[in-house]
Amino acid sequence: MTQVQEVFVKEFFSVEQLQRFLIYFSSKHAQIGKQDTLTEVVVNLLSAPLTVTLGQHGVFFFTSHLLVYPYAEMDERQLRYVSGVLRANVPEKNQSVALREFDAVPGIGVRVMKQMGGGYAVKLQELSETRIRAEDVLTALTRGIMTGNQKHPHTYREHAMSVQLQRIMGQVNISRALQLVVNDEMTRLQATD
């Protein structure tokens, strides 16, 4: 992994950020039709490299799914990163006054595409083959389900985690070692309850 990819993963896909990311995609306002958006996001994170594109309303991380992670859901550090990339790569005449306040983030190969109707989409070329560690994805998923909605008893949350894993394992292979990571995290979280 390059240094640029490491910085990006740290800002967007640390275990804590992944947990926020997955919680957003498990919420009702992130659902698309009747499909299980959370399962689709986790399967994509486990099986495919990211394709990062900055759009008008948020960041697209997957080419095969038009799921957008809105800027409104990002924390200050993530917004600062995105703003710096845009500042360095979008022509100044097209930048908003707010965007001009951020420092540019140089050194990332991008492809700026003008969209119909105005605006730009910025594909971050150097981040296109970034893969997220499966251990981090599954740990974040486990923490999100097991510590999330405290109105449900612990046994209900364990059942929900089991069902979610079954949905994921129907689409992607999860090794025994990764299953042990999930079990260890569940045990650790149960001990802290």
> Biggest β-sheet: count, sense, barrel?
5 strands, antiparallel
Q: Please tell me the overall pLDDT.
A: 82
Quantity of strands, as a count: 5
Relative helix content: 40-55%
- Our count of helices gives 7
Write the layout of secondary structure elements.
Elements: H1 3-12, H2 15-26, H3 37-47, E1 53-54, E2 58-60, E3 68-70, H4 76-89, E4 110-114, E5 120-124, H5 134-147, H6 154-169, H7 176-192
Antiparallel strand pairs: 1-2, 1-5, 2-3, 4-5
Describe what you observe in this structure.
The chain has seven helices and five strands. The chain starts with a helix and ends with a helix. Strand 1 (53-54) and strand 2 form a beta hairpin. The protein is elongated and about 55 Å long. The protein has a five-stranded antiparallel β-sheet with strand order 3-2-1-5-4. By secondary structure, it is α+β, with helices and mostly antiparallel strands.
Quick description:
This protein has 193 residues and is α+β, with helices and mostly antiparallel strands. It contains seven helices and five strands, in the order αααβββαββααα. A five-stranded antiparallel sheet has the order 3-2-1-5-4.
List keywords for this structure.
elongated; five-stranded antiparallel sheet; 7 helices
